[in-house]
Each structure stands twice: as C-alpha cells, then as structure tokens.
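Researcher: Good morning. I'm working through a list of sequences from a screen, and I'd like to move beyond sequence-only analysis. For each chain I'm collecting a predicted structure so we can compare shapes side by side. This is the next one on the list. No need for commentary yet; just the structure.
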Amino acid sequence: MPENPMPENLMNSVLAKLYDVIANGDGVTVPKSEDNFFTWCSPGIPFDENEFDFLQQGLTGVIKPESLTTKDAAGVETKRELTDVERAELLAQNTSQMYMQAESFARFVDFIPDASGMNDALARMNIKNDEGTLSDVYDFVLRFSQVANTELSADDKAKIEKYRQLLQVEREKEDLITGEKIKVMEESPLVKLYAEKRAAWEEASLVYNNSRINALTASTPRDVHDFAINASIYRSRVNFAMSDWINNGYKNEFEGIAARIDQMSSRDLTIIKAIYKDALAKARLTGIVGGGDFYYTSLAPAGFIKSKG
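Model: Good morning. Structure tokens for this chain:
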C-alpha cells in the first residue's frame, strides 16, 4: 500500500503489479519469459463502439434499422419502404464502411513495439518507425529467408518411388503428328477405380443432402414428404457407395499410400515456409479509398465491445 493512498497512487500501484506479473511472471500461473512485454496505452485512445461492427458483422453490408425510418419536422418517426435501388445502395454503403473500419483497425495495430529502455515499473512503449510495419517486416522475412533443405534418405526415396509406381503406370503412345512412339505416364488401375468409386459416393451423398436441404427449405409439401419417406433409401445408397468404394475402389489403400508419401516428403521446411506465405497472402486486402494493402486483423472475442457480460 503506498504511503499516500490517493486514487492516482492506488491506480499506479495496481498497474505496476499487473505489469510485473504479466511481463515477469508470478512463478505459478504465469511463467517468466524474456519475450513477454506489457504496456498501457496512456492516455487512452477513444473508440466508438460502432467502429468495431466489422468484427461481428463481417465485411458484408447490412441494412441498419435507422435507415428504414424518417423524421418529420416535429420529430415523429415513420417507417418507409425501400426500393430495390435504395436497398442496393444502402448495402453497398455499409459494405464500404465495414472495409474502411477493418482497414483503420488493421493499420492502428500494425506496428513494431520497441521494448528497449523499459523499466520494471510502469512501462512506456515506443514504436520503431524505421523498419516499416510489423506486416512489412514479416513479409520481408518470409521472402528473403532461407530455410534448411531436408534431403530424403536413399531408403525414403526408394519407398516413395515404390508407392508412386502403384499410382501411375508408363505406357507407349503414338504421336498423332509424327507417328513416333512416345512414353507417357497415366493413372494406374488403382487410381482409376478409386476416382470412379469416389465419384459414385459423392453423387449418392449429394442426392441425400439435396433432398434434406429441400425438406428444410421446402416451399411445397412434396419436398417434406419426399425426405420423410425416402430418406432411408437415399441414406442406404450412400452407405452402399461407401462400402463399394472401400471394397472395390481401393479407398484405404490409396489414401494410405498418399499419407505415407506426404509424411516422408513434407518434412522439408520449404513447404512450411510456403504455407506461411500463403496464409499471409490470403489475409491481404486492399483499401477502397487509398488503394493500399492491409492485412485483416480481428479481436477475440469479436463482440466484447457490446457484450453485456
């Protein structure tokens, strides 16, 4: 307890304790880590709760209730009917607003913290502005980094070649232009049967699922009657197709071979790096006003701003 128990001193003591536990650990619940840092944004930056609508709503526009009412000179509200053109315009406006909210928040948090010079009490965090944003540096690292190339052993290469010979066959084919015999690789009978039986199972499954969807969204009684009476037959076809796929379509054998090849060939770190690059690229969006790229950023839970909890 501080000697002068004024509100600001009490608050400073609480904040200092929180920082000490989160950054340095308490030895029980929070382990000590050299990489942890914690800082307060002081003074706080005010946000209106509506600026986080994109977290729950997503980036697709909706028509807000206030758009359906009008006020006269006396302040009396009346509801109005929207035309198709007005509805489309409101949806487009709200969609643009969601993108602008997402871009604003993404740029607000896309920075590199500078933890140098922090003390053990109330830390004051700086931002490193000389190396670009956090996403810039991450993208730079992914593009220019070199990862270890894991060479497969001779035994693994032999196994992979053996498995691949089960999935493809070599045959001679006559060139239609020159008439010469050329060698080409084709799917093996195992693969062809696997694809055929898989297609049959997918077709039976789609028939069953579509019948169920029609019943759930029925506009006529017939769709409901059809699923209620024939669902067992549709499902029986799905089960039969699965059994046929397993017994005659080499389902387990093909997937086992593919899994073994993947297990041995996916140890290369370049594959992991490619996955990271793909994940970063999929998160990239382009701002509709400035035209600059940003990376979609969210918070968890998404509805904490308006939560009653």
